[in-house]
Write a structure and sequence with these properties.
alpha+beta; two-stranded antiparallel sheet; 10 helices; 5-stranded mixed beta sheet
Length: 261
Amino acid sequence: PPSTPPSPPPTTFPRTFQTPPSSPTSSPSTKLPQTDCRASSPTPSDYSGKAAAIAITLLREPDKIRTQTQIAHQSGVDQSWVSRVAKSLVERDCVEINRVNRRGIKVVSPACVLDACQQTYSPKVMGGHSRTFSSAARVDKIERLIADYCNKASLPYAFTAYSAAARHASVGPYDRVVVYVDDDSAAVDLLADKLDLRPARHGNVVIWRPSSPVVMSAVQRLRSDCVVDPVLCYLDMWVMPGRGRDHARAFRATALPEDFV
């Protein structure tokens, strides 16, 4: 009798942080998770944004064992995505599953999680809508004006990248202000008008509108100014043009815990 052809190997989750699991093609009714993007163009893949939110959440308390439900709540990401990202990180030996503690997830190597996250991180991952302006004022004066205006107008804000790194640790001179402002375009237009910031393609003031609750959930106040936490600061600086990565490497070596390096 004719031999039975061998069955195809089972589909396994890819050992990568970049690509989500492929969707089945046998059923045309299969639905993928919907992308929730505020920016019109260009936007990151749905997977890279969700994975970054989960990774940042894990790295903020790397010694804490948390369930997938807790991580989903803290990151603002659906639990099914937490399961997928966790499985990918387990296969990379970045995290482990504590099955005794209600399938809790614990970070084994913060450096591994951070490296995996930065592979697909981009300015559009956490900053869903970006505006660039130009100002003739010094960087420190621009930052002071932005902070004072946002405080008086009750605008939620947080400096990031170079502007935050300078408050967390010294990273040398810089010539670009980067800040998250959690409000709509009209509020940013008013801020720019009041501070004499002029729209520019390659300006020295970058204002991002957060696209994830992770951005503003761990804001710290340093030197009387609101700044993002060190992990997000590092990632945002990593994707800055010019010498952004050089500054990010120096910041990672001096401002992040030893097991992050």
